Amino acid sequence: MRSKLADAYYIRFTHQAGFEVSSTTRYTGTMEACILATRDWTAGEIVQYCSGAIVDLTKEDDAKLKSEGRDFSVMVSTRKKCTCLFLGPARFMNHDCDANCEFMTPQNSTISFKVQRDIRRGEEMTVYYGDHYFGSDNCECRCLSCER
Ligand SMILES: C[S@@+](CC[C@H](N)C(=O)[O-])C[C@H]1O[C@@H](n2cnc3c(N)ncnc32)[C@H](O)[C@@H]1O
């Protein structure tokens, strides 16, 4: 019999989660991950199973990941005032300048998302990373909202 912990893990990959990790070429021109809604979502709902852990990085860790080109999951936390590594399915949420989800930090080292406006099944679920994540004023951003 599976443990409750295993169930809590597997549910993220079932229809019940309300999202799936899919693929897109929108952001870099090569295949990478994105989060797609597998049902309609209503503003205010919590995307409970698209969660992740945040690990604080030292300056050395940060520099090493950058130099190896492995900083794709690194964010600057304005609240914690340091760089952090995102782990878990939450790390696959891409940035949009008019995102349909927002970050929630229910516990110090865990993130999940709250739906900001209604999302239709099949739509990409996105979050706003920050004002200058993709260059000054996000001038290098490749999100759908910028394209429009
Ligand atoms: C936290 S990861 C998101 C998941 C990522 N697509 C992957 O497969 O690992 C952040 C990376 O996704 C890409 N990305 C996400 N949103 C983007 C955007 N609006 N414009 C350009 N690149 C974006 C960039 O490569 C960025 O470093």
From TrEMBL:
SUPFAM superfamilies (alphabetical): SET domain
Which InterPro entries does the record associate with it? SET_dom, SET_dom_sf, Suv4-20/Set9
Q: Which GO terms describe its cellular component?
A: nucleus
Q: Which residues form the SET domain?
A: 17-130
Alphabetically, the GO molecular function entries are: histone H4K20 methyltransferase activity
Pfam families listed in its UniProt record: SET (PF00856)
Q: What is this protein called?
A: SET domain-containing protein
